[in-house]
Design goal:
Length: 464
């Protein structure tokens, strides 16, 4: 790696560590990728060179490619040498998966028996280490034709592996595949609130932090909630009701350091439509809330530079909100306003429907499902550029990830667009995975792990 690249990597790693502090018992940056989008959903893994170009067909820069049975959009998670994921294997053959840009709200027809599996691979070789069936039976709700029966990404702390199959249960295994505990929350229908017969499945992923696992359950039925459980025992620590529309967003834990009274302040952030909010990690007490935005919230909140970035985009609005670390109470914007005491800045029309945005260095990148990417100054909201990375006909559902001065955007058809990080758009490469790709990649020690429809593909510089 050149001196310039080494310097850039070191600088960006310093920024990441400064804006997202890691306690000694948590994941190691650049090595572990413990949940959806890695450490606190940042999507960033520094300290190692990554490949810009690869060719799956010829094997160039392909470390390994392992077949995975079933259909799932859950992303891989990594701890040390373990790469874990979930899948749903239908007893009725190959299930339908309809990708692309379309507005069909109907449900897929595969309601026959499924085998809900948890499995672990060796991240260096792709060989399967173990596999276990968490649940077997017919789904309790239908899914969207673009979704699966295993949408939620696992979470791990190196000792526990937590998986969430929605209506089919919430499970905790150890890293050898032994079941430690399980829970049944009943039927969890996260379909369209304006058309309750249009069942879409469930997708919010669990998050582990400091011995607790957080889940966000916004569903059509009464009794939606956000809750914390003891990750070792499954015992409920706290539960707070939510009256929001169904969401597919994963919560984020935001450690803020010492509070005004000298005690530790850690928040749990939750996207929403009626109830975007922050909760005290220890007690579940609501700290701040706001309403408005897109009415099918999907992106996960992210944090950097003492700001929390929240976006959603469906219906009349497509906002990006930058919430201050010290926000409290109701911080909903007044009509026509773009900031207030709790909001550093906002924009009404440049938000994302499906993708979780990414902060890399001082810049915020927001990708829309139609392939348009907007780059902002993360602290001020000043727009640096807006460009289209797709041809307008291909959807982008997978969230971007970043490493080694590069940002990786992947289309639903498996096109990987590699962009140089910076205030001016510069495309470095375009690569093809050769399969539909809906999940978000993982990165560990410079290796990118793409979970396609039928495989996990490991990409590394000079792999072959």
């Amino acid at each position: 790696m050149s001196l310039a690249r080494t310097s850039l990597a070191a600088t960006l790693l310093a920024v990441l560590l400064a804006t997202a502090p890691i306690s000694a018992e948590e994941a190691r940056p650049g090595i572990d990728w413990p949940g959806f989008r890695g450490i606190r959903a940042s999507g960033v893994a520094e300290g190692f060179p990554t490949a810009a170009s690869f060719d799956v067909a010829s094997g160039a820069n392909v470390k390994w490619r392992s077949e995975i049975a079933g259909l799932a959009h859950s992303s891989p998670v990594i701890w040390g040498n373990d790469l874990c994921l979930t899948t749903a294997v239908s007893a009725e053959g190959t299930p339908e998966l309809k990708v692309g840009l379309y507005g069909d709200i109907g449900s897929a027809a595969d309601i026959g028996p499924q085998r809900y599996e948890v499995l672990c691979l060796d991240k260096t070789t792709g060989k399967e280490r173990w596999r276990t069936t968490a649940y077997e039976g017919a789904p309790k709700t239908k899914r969207h034709p673009k979704a699966t029966h295993a949408n939620s990404t696992p979470a791990t702390d190196g000792r526990h592996l937590v998986t969430f199959f929605g209506s089919e249960g919430f499970y905790c295994h150890d890293l050898a595949g032994k079941l430690l505990w399980k829970k049944d929350f009943g039927v969890l229908d996260a379909g369209y609130y304006l058309a309750p017969d249009a069942q879409w499945g469930f997708a919010s992923s669990p998050v582990i932090h400091d011995g607790k696992v957080i889940v966000q359950v916004d569903v059509l039925q009464k009794g939606g909630f956000i809750a914390a459980f003891d990750v070792a025992t499954g015992n409920e620590v706290w539960r707070v009701g939510r009256t929001d529309v169904p969401t597919w967003s994963t919560p984020t834990v935001w450690p803020l350091g010492a509070g005004a009274s000298g005690g530790s302040t850690t928040l749990v952030l939750a996207n929403g439509y009626r109830q975007i909010g922050a909760y005290d990690f220890a007690t579940g007490r609501e700290v701040w809330r706001m309403t408005g935005g897109g009415d099918i919230p999907v992106p996960t909140p992210i944090t950097a530079h003492d700001l929390a970035f929240i976006t959603n985009a469906h219906g009349r609005m497509a906002p990006v909100y930058a919430v201050r670390a010290g926000a409290s109470g109701d911080i909903t914007l007044a009509t026509g306003a773009t900031s207030n005491a709790g909001l550093a800045w906002s924009t009404a029309r440049d938000g994302a429907y499906m993708q979780t945005p990414i902060v890399y260095g001082d810049l915020l990148y927001v990708g829309r499902d139609n392939g348009v990417v907007t780059c902002f100054d993360a602290r001020t909201g000043a727009q640096k550029y807006q460009t289209r990375i797709g041809d307008g006909s291909r959807g982008f559902t997978s969230s971007p990830v970043a490493a080694d001065g590069k940002i990786y955007f992947t289309s639903e058809q498996g096109d990987v667009v590699v962009v140089r990080a910076g205030a001016e758009y510069q495309e470095l490469a375009r690569n093809e995975l050769g399969e539909v790709h809906m999940s978000t990649p993982a990165i560990s020690e410079g290796v990118l792990y793409f979970r396609t429809r039928g495989h996990v593909v490991a990409i590394a510089e000079s792999a072959k």
